[in-house]
């Protein structure tokens, strides 16, 4: 009897002990970040590491995961992808835009408007060759395209959930900006196809900032934006519209066949708009951080225009520190230093011309809420093109306006403008924001993000 009683007493303790051991043996345990160099004290957990997506080519995608500040298991999971194609979501998104920290010299400062206040944030360097992601087979860097990237991203998610099973059933929102206007819809499409066979990923919404959705519409809205903001003259506007529009120039540029009329048009545009104005935020002074590098790829310039980048680049300096790479469980493979945008990736730039706005339409038909937002100071993918595409899509899928075009507020100031169709497709601008809205307007971007997650209208009054 005494032995039986003792066994009953010890059983709960033994179960607790076994549970602790099992928890420590979860694959995620080896990815846990104990402390980033220069990091202030925080209560939330951080993880980073590699997920192999192709055993044959040793394609390993690098991620950085920040749990929500409060009660993470009850909060949604948000995947964030930066564009380029070929720019780092960790360097741009996590450490420049909406992550918990921003480098400042030798230390990290807290981002007061970090998105992990409302969600578990997962940042992915994709495709291989970007950021800390790598492949031991050099052929993996050649002729990479949207289709390959989407498939790799899906495999990453599936295998990441094996490592973090506690988030398998969480509401998933896929977000990003710029060329993520291709990455995000294509990944969402594959998830929907997968779920029809075996429901395994709980996709709840998609949000895209200043996204490339339809090549001609997005790019050709640039001329009107330049002209309306006083960057080019009437005659140059006509040349840039009727002589050689921007989509034609970019198409010729990536085919190495720039015509004389397009060369003349771009020379005139560059001359008048000046290299002393940042095209990714026309109100920003010319000295810009590497956060804007992703824009330079989708907006190629003639050799005559050189963009002045700040000498001190906090993100590049921080992520090239050996102690930082060790803390992140990151390594450099095939490159000598970490860069914001890859110089070893050979991406099929003609994929720029493949429209993804139709995929957005298919997501809406599957009842997946979509938010398209624009920093209104961006001339690379201007708000006018995005607004035109969203309005046209709403008509095509038969959605009526449910929130008429109106202002929304952040604090006591106008945060931007918004319009909603069928309570499932939303367009919003962020007032005073650049191509990378969370970088230039963090508080307004956070209000927009929180409203989207909560499926609530943007604030109508202060």
From TrEMBL:
Keywords: Carboxypeptidase, Disulfide bond, Glycoprotein, Hydrolase, Protease, Secreted, Signal
Record flagged with keyword Zinc: no
Pfam families with a match to the protein in the record: Peptidase_S10 (PF00450)
Listed InterPro entries: AB_hydrolase_fold, Peptidase_S10, Ser_caboxypep_his_AS, Ser_caboxypep_ser_AS
Secretion signal span: 1-23
Subcellular location, record wording: Secreted
GO BP: any one term: proteolysis
Gene3D superfamilies: 3.40.50.11320, 6.10.250.940, alpha/beta hydrolase
PROSITE patterns associated with the record: CARBOXYPEPT_SER_HIS, CARBOXYPEPT_SER_SER
Biological function: Probable carboxypeptidase.
Protein family: Belongs to the peptidase S10 family.
The protein's name: Carboxypeptidase
Source organism (scientific name): Buddleja alternifolia
């Amino acid at each position: 009897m005494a032995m039986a009683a003792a066994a009953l007493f010890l059983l709960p303790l033994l179960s607790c002990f076994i549970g602790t051991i099992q928890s420590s043996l979860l694959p995620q345990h080896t990815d846990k970040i104990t402390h980033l160099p220069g990091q202030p004290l925080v209560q939330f957990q951080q993880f980073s590491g590699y997920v192999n997506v192709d055993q044959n080519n040793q394609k390993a995608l690098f991620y950085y995961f920040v749990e929500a500040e409060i009660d993470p298991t009850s909060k949604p999971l948000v995947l964030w992808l930066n564009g380029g194609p070929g720019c780092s979501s960790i360097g741009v998104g996590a450490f420049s835009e909406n992550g918990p920290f921003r480098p400042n010299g030798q230390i990290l400062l807290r981002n007061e408007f970090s998105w992990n206040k409302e969600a578990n944030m997962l940042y992915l360097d994709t495709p291989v060759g970007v950021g800390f992601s790598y492949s031991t087979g050099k052929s993996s860097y050649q002729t990479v395209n949207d289709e390959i990237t989407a498939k790799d991203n899906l495999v990453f998610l599936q295998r990441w959930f094996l490592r973090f099973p506690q988030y398998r059933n969480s509401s998933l929102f896929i977000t990003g900006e710029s060329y993520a206007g291709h990455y995000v819809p294509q990944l969402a499409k594959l998830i929907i196809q997968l779920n029809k066979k075996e429901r395994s990923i709980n996709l709840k919404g998609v949000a895209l900032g200043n996204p490339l959705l339809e090549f001609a519409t997005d790019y050709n809205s640039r001329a009107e934006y330049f002209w309306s903001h006083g960057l080019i003259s009437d005659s140059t506007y006509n040349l840039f519209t009727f002589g050689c529009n921007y989509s034609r120039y970019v198409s010729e540029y990536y085919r190495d066949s720039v015509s004389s009329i397009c060369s003349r048009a771009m020379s005139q545009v560059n001359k008048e708009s000046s290299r002393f104005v940042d095209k990714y935020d026309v109100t920003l002074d010319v000295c810009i951080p590497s956060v804007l590098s992703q824009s330079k790829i989708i907006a190629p310039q003639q050799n005559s225009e050189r963009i002045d980048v700040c000498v001190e680049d906090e993100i590049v300096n921080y992520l090239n520190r050996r102690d930082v790479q060790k803390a992140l469980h990151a390594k450099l493979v095939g490159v000598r230093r970490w860069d914001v945008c890859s110089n070893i990736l050979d991406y099929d730039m003609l994929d720029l011309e493949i429209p993804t706005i139709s995929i957005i339409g298919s997501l809406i038909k599957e009842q997946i809420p979509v938010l398209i937002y624009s920093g209104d100071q961006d001339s690379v993918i201007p708000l006018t093109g995005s607004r035109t595409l969203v309005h046209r899509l709403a008509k095509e899928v038969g959605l009526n306006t449910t929130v008429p075009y109106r202002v929304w507020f952040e604090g006591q100031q106008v945060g931007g403008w918004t319009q909603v169709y069928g309570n499932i497709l939303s367009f919003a601008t962020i007032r005073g924001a650049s191509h990378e809205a969370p970088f230039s307007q963090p508080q307004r971007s956070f209000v927009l993000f929180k409203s989207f997650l909560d499926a609530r209208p943007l604030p109508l009054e202060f």
